[in-house]
């Protein structure tokens, strides 16, 4: 019987360890406010200055981009966000009592933004970027909440989620959160300037830049040491570049002014915003104050240099001559014979990291889709690029993209027609 | 003879200045400050002045269409009420005031119309097409085309598009788009109702007759005041009933 007692004892110990781990990971970290605090929060919600500040912060956080369906009411939700694990519809965050956040207290809102937990304690799917928003201060969160509460309520029920098993089991998030989520408000670094700290706060927190500009692993998580090092955006199939402006960085050679120009106007002397970044500029960053833009630029300029990639001698594409002819015919009028572009209008291609980036997907899709730079207050009538999907074959696009990636000072790999074929879908939302 | 050095340096400066100016001119020439240059994403398919793609199907003519109609279509591509992925992508980043300028640019282009080659359909089909265009299909409560698009079929300012000068393929694509909800409108939704009531064979007949119809002497949309015939009661611009 000794073996039985020992076996049961071991089982009990294992169960206890398991239960402790479960409690540790799943414990409700909500610390409800005191009644005094709750009263103060409620009073703050109707302060017009705070509502105005909240509007600005909600714009910086680009909340409306996800929480608005195409052609729908702002913040009323309904936009379906595609993830590799299934589609998640963004909820209604207008103050409608039945379908929105009308019955939410600030404690509820804070739990969502800071802890990634819903009103009933349920774990939220991290397509809602609480991995970044947890850095937002309580005071800023209160302002955003005040603004959302001031919006006209819209009655729009939530759409069902389209997640597949096992991702539709919310408790599976316990493990995910243990791996990738560390709650905590941004802590200023006293060794850095206030401007750097403001930039870090905006980039790491509300701006949630890292959610696109970092690689995601097979579970959709981002490793801590990959901060802003660039990555392919799941489902959208654009490459969000590394944001270091120093040696080996994805924005190598970008000045602070270049960063500010891109975020404010949609284009800079180094390149234009396109794809999802054009949305970000149009809806969010063009509205940021000059001081905040300067802070973001200061922070990005201070990101560390990246280890230079081992020099690889890429063999020249067999299609180089053909690519050159296509370039002269279709591209040179605007981008120049030597890929120099036209200052303030057409981006240069020589030395442009969007062209030479770790993958060729941005260059391929830009050629296929063309399109306008975002219309912004500073650039209300942007110039545009013709879409070439209708005109050029996979072979032609591969030839011209390879040519651009391997001309002037550009030294990158050639592109195969099959890569073009894979990128021929046109995003509509 | 040795020239004084200052003359050589001033000559050099003059040459440098000239080179700089011509370089600047070359750069400026690369990007004229015109709307035509700005909207290269539109004109590569629709033609520099909106004359449409050579086949008239891939990209329709925009030149001379009512500005209000063009703006509305651009906004529908933004909101997804009209679906065509390349158009939806191209207009995505633009503001309403800029869309209006673009619509007005193409509306203002005054270009001659050319007749499309006679579609390969029988005389009987063309007669049926003419019948529906001019008189509708009363048995199915389909109003005539002319009752809304005008007796000259050139449309009305500011919202009603003309139907002549378009290819048969483009017109039939649009009628089918109304039926499949890849083309829609907030109101009036009359065309959705009409297209759904039409016989499929009549879509082909109407498209063929419209494309082969000789362009009017004056192809401009008629002024709004010229729209004297009342639209069908259930299909008034801005107020439509889906189930009349």
Automatic annotation (TrEMBL), chain A:
Q: What PROSITE patterns does the database record attribute to this sequence?
A: CYTC
- Where is heme c 2 annotated to bind? 209, 212-213
Q: Where does heme c 3 bind?
A: 331, 334-335
Q: Name one Pfam family in it.
A: Cytochrom_C
**Superkingdom of the source species:** Bacteria
Question: Which Gene Ontology terms of cellular component type are present?
Answer: membrane
Residue stretches making up the Cytochrome c domain:
49-152, 194-304, 318-408
Q: Which GO terms describe its molecular function?
A: electron transfer activity; heme binding; iron ion binding; oxidoreductase activity, acting on CH-OH group of donors
Read off the SUPFAM superfamilies from this record.
Cytochrome c
Give the residues the record marks as binding heme c 1.
Answer: 63, 66-67
Which InterPro entries does the record match to this protein?
Cyt_c-like_dom, Cyt_c-like_dom_sf, Cyt_C_IC, Cytochrome_c-type_DH, Membr-bd_ADH_cyt_c
Q: Cofactor comment in the record? A: Binds 3 heme c groups covalently per subunit.
- What are the UniProt keywords, alphabetically? Electron transport, Heme, Iron, Metal-binding, Transport
Q: Which cofactor does it need?
A: heme c
Q: What is this protein called?
A: Cytochrome c
UniProt source species: Rhodanobacter sp. FW102-FHT14D07
């Amino acid at each position: 019987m000794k073996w039985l007692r020992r076996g049961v004892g071991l089982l009990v110990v294992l169960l206890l360890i398991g239960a402790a781990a479960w409690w540790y990971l799943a414990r409700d970290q909500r610390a409800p406010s005191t009644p005094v605090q709750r009263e103060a929060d409620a009073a703050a919600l109707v302060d017009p200055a705070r509502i105005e500040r909240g509007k600005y912060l909600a714009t910086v956080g680009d909340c409306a981009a996800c929480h608005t369906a195409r052609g729908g009411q702002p913040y009323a939700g309904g936009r379906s966000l595609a993830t590799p694990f299934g589609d998640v519809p963004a909820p209604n965050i207008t103050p409608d009592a039945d379908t929105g956040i009308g019955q939410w207290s600030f404690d509820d809102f804070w739990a969502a933004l800071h802890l990634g937990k819903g009103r009933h304690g349920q774990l939220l799917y991290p397509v809602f970027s609480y991995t970044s928003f947890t850095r937002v201060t309580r005071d800023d969160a209160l302002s955003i909440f005040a603004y959302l509460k001031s919006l006209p309520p819209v009655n729009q029920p939530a759409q069902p989620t389209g997640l597949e098993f096992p991702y539709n089991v919310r408790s599976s998030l316990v493990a995910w959160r243990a791996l990738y989520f560390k709650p905590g408000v941004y802590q200023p670094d006293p060794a850095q300037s206030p401007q750097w700290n403001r930039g870090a706060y905006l980039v790491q927190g509300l701006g949630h830049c890292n959610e696109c500009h970092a690689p995601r692993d097979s579970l959709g998580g981002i490793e801590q040491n990959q901060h802003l090092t660039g990555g392919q955006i799941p489902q959208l199939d654009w490459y969000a570049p590394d944001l270091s402006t120093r040696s080996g960085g994805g924005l190598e050679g970008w000045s602070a002014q270049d960063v500010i120009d891109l975020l404010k106007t949609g284009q800079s002397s180094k390149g234009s915003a396109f794809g999802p970044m054009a949305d970000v500029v149009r809806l969010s960053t063009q509205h940021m104050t000059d001081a905040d833009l300067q802070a973001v630029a200061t922070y990005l300029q201070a990101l560390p240099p990246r280890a230079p990639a081992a020099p690889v001698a890429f063999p020249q594409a067999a299609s180089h001559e053909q690519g050159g002819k296509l370039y002269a015919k279709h591209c040179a009028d605007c981008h120049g014979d030597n890929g120099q572009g036209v200052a303030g209008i057409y981006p240069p291609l020589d030395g442009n990291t969007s062209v030479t980036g770790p993958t060729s997907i941005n260059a391929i899709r830009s050629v296929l889709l063309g399109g306008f730079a975002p219309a912004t207050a500073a650039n209300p009538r942007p110039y545009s690029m013709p879409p070439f999907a209708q005109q050029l074959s996979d072979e032609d696009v591969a030839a011209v993209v390879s040519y651009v990636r391997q001309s002037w000072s550009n030294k990158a790999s050639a592109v195969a027609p099959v890569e073009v074929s894979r990128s021929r879908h046109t995003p509509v939302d | 003879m040795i020239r004084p050095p200052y003359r050589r340096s001033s000559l050099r400066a003059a040459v440098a200045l000239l080179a700089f100016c011509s370089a600047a001119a070359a750069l400026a020439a690369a990007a004229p400050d015109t709307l035509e240059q700005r909207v290269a994403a539109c004109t590569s398919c629709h033609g520099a002045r909106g004359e449409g793609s050579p086949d008239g199907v891939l990209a329709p003519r925009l030149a001379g269409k009512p500005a209000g109609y063009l703006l509305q279509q651009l906004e529908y591509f933004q909101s997804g009420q009209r679906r065509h992925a390349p158009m939806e992508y191209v207009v995505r980043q633009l503001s309403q005031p800029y869309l209006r300028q673009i619509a007005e640019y193409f509306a203002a282009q005054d270009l001659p119309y050319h007749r499309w080659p006679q579609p390969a359909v029988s005389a009987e089909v063309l007669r049926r097409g003419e019948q529906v265009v001019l008189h509708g299909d009363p048995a199915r409560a389909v109003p005539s085309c002319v009752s809304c698009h005008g007796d000259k079929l050139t449309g009305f300012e500011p919202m009603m598009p003309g139907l002549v000068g378009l290819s048969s393929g483009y017109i039939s694509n649009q009628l089918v788009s109304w039926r499949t909800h890849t083309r829609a409108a907030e109101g009036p939704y009359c065309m959705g109702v009409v297209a759904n009531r039409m016989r499929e064979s009549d879509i082909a007949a109407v498209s063929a007759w419209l494309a082969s119809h000789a362009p009017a002497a004056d192809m401009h949309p008629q002024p709004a005041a010229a729209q004297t015939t009342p639209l069908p009661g259930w299909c008034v611009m801005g107020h439509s009933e889906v189930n009349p």
